[in-house]
Amino acid sequence: xxxxxxxxxxxxxxxxxxxxxxxxxxxxxxxxxxxxxxxxxxxxxxxxxxxxxxxxxxxxxxxxxxxxxxxxxxxxxxxxxxxxxxxxxxxxxxxxxxxxxxxxxxxxxxxxxxxxxxxxxxxxxxxxxxxxxxxxxxxxxxxxxxxxxxxxxxxxxxxxxxxxxxxxxxxxxxxxxxxxxxxxxxxxxxxxxxxxxxxxxxxxxxxxxxxxxxxxxxxxxxxxxxxxxxxxxxxxxxxxxxxxxxxxxxxxxxxxxxxxxxxxxxxxxxxxxxxxxxxxxxxxxxxxxxxxxxxxxxxxxxxxxxxxxx
Length: 310
Fold this sequence. Notes:
Layout: H1 5-27, H2 33-48, H3 51-54, H4 58-61, E1 73-78, H5 81-86, E2 97-108, E3 112-123, H6 130-163, E4 169-180, E5 184-195, E6 197-208, E7 213-214, H7 227-245, E8 270-273, E9 279-283, E10 296-299, H8 302-305
Parallel strand pairs: 3-4
Antiparallel strand pairs: 1-2, 2-3, 4-5, 5-6, 6-7, 8-9, 9-10
């Protein structure tokens, strides 16, 4: 077989140009109806992939396609724990906690659709350690209240669109357990809104199962440790390396307008702990990169923060 390397290079260059064209389209503020339908198709495909494959496509993993339908209906279920279990979604999540579907809201019409599934954390077993039990109960109530607040606001916002007869609005809320070990449990609440263009954002809820505490980012580090500077510098380094390795990757760093550049994380920046125990910093669409990059994550190497970790 004879390889035509100049022709192969030409084809590769054409492919790169096409990818950059797609990249440019996604950077636009508005998304065409055809692009939106393609995005929904990708979401549906993501549902069918296994966890390993979906990890490569985190920007679409949280969304589920709501099929178009001539009729319309609304289902709003307020359930007890037993009713929630009967509805399904009762995965086994370790020794201490489980997740059930507390409420489900669904709506479909030709122009608007919603699928909002509200998860609820429950304590799975009784325990003799009074302090651990009290902390777990407190953490459970805080997280469940936050999830209800978020989903209630999204539901009310969607119904406002319906009342005012605005065009084309879609809402999807699902959840995923990212981690359940003897030490940590993390629940991810995945939110998506489409209104001409689509936007995805996520919430992360981590419990230290050894203490029962609902963790914030600062709780992972020693008191007075400057984890913000250390992590921010590492993220900038990763951004530059990724952009150098692949010209299709773009982050807001090194821009001429300094205000556009990623500067630093904050105490409120989203995070979770992965299977290796490493800190993973999470950004929503548009936070640190163009929208076409989706929701992005940065795993912080253990050696970078070992001196300041608890």
